[in-house]
Amino acid sequence: MSHKAIVNIINFVRGIEPRNTSIDLLLPVEKQIELADKYNLPGTWLLQYDALIDDRFIKLLQTLNPTHEVGIWFEMVQPLVEKAGIKWRGRYPWDWAANVCMSAGDTP
Question: What pLDDT, on the 0 to 100 scale, is given for residue 65?
Fold first, then answer.
């Protein structure tokens, strides 16, 4: 019996990478889009807040073909936490420690 296989690639888009600040995080996203389109693969692009407030990412993702979708990746980063009026407790603008990067880690 044959069946249809469905694949959807989830791409997490960050605007901050404290482990290597020399990386332009737009470049990998551009390459991922290029590869997805080349191989006709649908994709979901989930933007973290720091990427969402960077116009370069918005302009790029507005060019996606209709097989792609865009969403929000709700992980705490320094710009979002401070915008909410909460003191940032992370070591870096994006901190991978669960008690910092998850919404349960912050209280007003």
Answer: 92
Q: Contact at 8 Å (CB) between 15 and 57?
A: yes
Strand partners, 12: 46
Q: Is 101 exposed, middle or buried (0-12, 13-18, 19+ CB in 10 A)?
A: middle
3-state secondary structure of 49: helix
CA gap 74, 52 in Å, rounded: 11
- Considering only CA atoms, which of 11, 12, 97 is closest in space to residue 49? 12
Single out the residue of 47, 48, 56 nearest to residue 24, CA to CA: 56
pLDDT along the chain (108 residues), means of 10: 82 90 94 95 94 96 95 88 88 80 62
User: What does the block give as tokens for 89?
Assistant: 């407790």
> Whole-prediction pTM value?
0.80
**pLDDT in the model for residue 92:** 87
Looking up tokens 């209280």, which residue turns up?
107
Q: Which tokens in the block code for residue 27?
A: 């470049």
